[in-house]
């Protein structure tokens, strides 16, 4: 699919930028399973196994040169669970031949501490390449960026159809640029229904977005781009 002249592929809640050879994952929330366990939910969620398996499959398919984790790489905790270090070590081993950028998200309060021994990971507040701005989305930068496509996470959008929820990408049309909101890559993190998001977005970049600007995209056997939210919300 082409968005503002940029060729983009979608698969398994990830985004692949053809021109940059960048694989983008938003809201991975490493450590969320352990956080849930500590709150009394004891059944296994296979966080590490699923993350590594899905990431390997994406790398095999797209053959990226760079990986960008688009914020909330970690879940929110003050004392780091041991299993988080274990997951990071295995990620570091899997990705040792790639450039790895981790964009700081609002959950990433322990990011520098946890990644200090993993030199493959470079921590940034944003990344701008070929007029594509990549951010988490929790804050707005007081910088005059020259971009025509903004890619962000933070919102965890899902589309609910017949009481079934599908992780959804959102293409959002603005005057001078377009926005692509990626779904959470985490297989545990909950999603937020798209028809409950309009006017209630968390990101300052989306506060003035209207239903007519929002075009949901879901991935089935093919890429399905829906009409704008104002036209489909009565069916959701």
Structure, described:
There is one protein chain. The chain has 236 residues and is α/β, with parallel strands linked by helices. The chain has a single domain (2-235), classed as Purple Acid Phosphatase, chain A, domain 2 (4-Layer Sandwich), CATH 3.60.21. The protein contains five helices and 17 strands. The strands form three sheets. It has a seven-stranded mixed β-sheet. The protein has a seven-stranded mixed β-sheet with strand order 8-9-10-14-13-16-17, with no helix packed on it. Strands 12-11-15 form a three-stranded mixed β-sheet, with no helix packed on it. The longest helix is centred in the N-terminal third of the chain and has 16 residues, at 47-62. It is globular, with a radius of gyration of 17 Å. The two termini are 24 Å apart. 38% of the residues are buried. The model has no long low-confidence stretch (mean pLDDT 89). Residues 21-138 form the Calcineurin-like phosphoesterase domain.
Unreliable spans: none
What is the overall shape?
globular
Proper CATH architecture: 4-Layer Sandwich
| Proportion of beta-strand residues | 25-35%
Assigned CATH class: Alpha Beta
Proportion of helical residues: 10-25%
Number of strands: 17
Could you say how many structural domains there are in total?
A: 1
> What is the number of helices?
5
Strand order of the largest sheet: 1-2-3-4-5-6-7
Indicate the multimeric state. Answer: single chain
Query: What order do the helices and strands follow?
Result: EEEEHHEHEHEEEEEEEEEEEH
């Amino acid at each position: 699919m082409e968005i503002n002249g940029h060729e983009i592929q979608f698969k398994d809640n990830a985004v692949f930028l053809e021109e940059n050879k960048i694989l983008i994952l938003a809201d991975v929330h490493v450590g969320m399973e352990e956080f849930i366990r500590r709150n009394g939910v004891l059944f296994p969620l296979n966080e590490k196994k699923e993350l590594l398996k899905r990431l390997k499959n994406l790398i095999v398919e797209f053959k990226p040169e760079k990986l960008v984790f688009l914020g909330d790489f970690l879940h929110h905790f003050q004392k780091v669970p041991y299993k988080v270090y274990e997951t990071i070590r295995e990620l570091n081993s899997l990705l040792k031949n790639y450039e790895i950028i981790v964009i700081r998200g609002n959950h990433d309060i322990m990011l520098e501490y946890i990644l200090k021994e993993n030199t493959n990971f470079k921590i940034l507040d944003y990344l701008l390449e070929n007029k594509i701005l990549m951010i988490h989305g929790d804050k707005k930068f007081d910088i005059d960026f020259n971009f025509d496509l903004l890619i962000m996470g933070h919102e965890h959008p899902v589309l609910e159809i017949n009481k079934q929820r599908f992780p959804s990408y959102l293409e959002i049309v603005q005057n001078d640029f377009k926005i692509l909101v990626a779904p959470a890559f985490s297989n545990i993190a909950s999603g937020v229904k798209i028809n409950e998001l309009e006017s209630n977005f968390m990101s300052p970049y989306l506060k003035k977005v209207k239903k007519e600007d929002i075009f949901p995209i879901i991935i089935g056997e093919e890429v399905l781009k829906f009409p704008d939210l104002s036209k489909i919300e009565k069916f959701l």
